[in-house]
Amino acid sequence: MRPWKLLGLAGLAGVAATGAVLARDERQRRALTPDDVRARLHERHAALAAVPEPAPPTTTELRAGRTHRVARILRRR
């Protein structure tokens, strides 16, 4: 009977800890003003726009197996 008690207490402690973390995150989120949120979104957008998209793989690269799923399809042909 004792192991089940310990397991139950550990579960309750986990639920309490999760609730505390979620409450803290919610308080931090609500502390932001709309201008703060807008500024963060603009920063994230600018950072993503600065990163160039990789070029799609060529047929030779695909056949060489660099992208395994597509390479298998091409090998069947």
Draw up the topology in text.
Blueprint lengths: L1 H29 L3 H17 L8 H6 L3 H9 L1
Can you offer a commentary on this structure?
The chain is mainly alpha-helical. It contains 4 helices and no strands. The relative contact order is 0.05. The protein starts with a helix and ends with a helix.
Can you summarize this structure?
This protein is mainly α and 77 residues long. The chain has helices at 2-30, 34-50, 59-64, 68-76. It has one domain.
Q: How many individual β-strands? A: 0
Q: What is the N-to-C succession of helices and strands?
A: HHHH
Cα end-to-end separation:
63 Å
Tally of DSSP helical segments: 4
Quote the average pLDDT. Answer: 84
- Proportion of residues in β-strands: under 5%
Helix share, percent: over 70%
Count of domain modules: 1
Largest sheet: none
Rounded to the nearest angstrom, the radius of gyration is 25 Å
Cα shape? flat
Poorly predicted regions are none
Give the structural class. mainly alpha
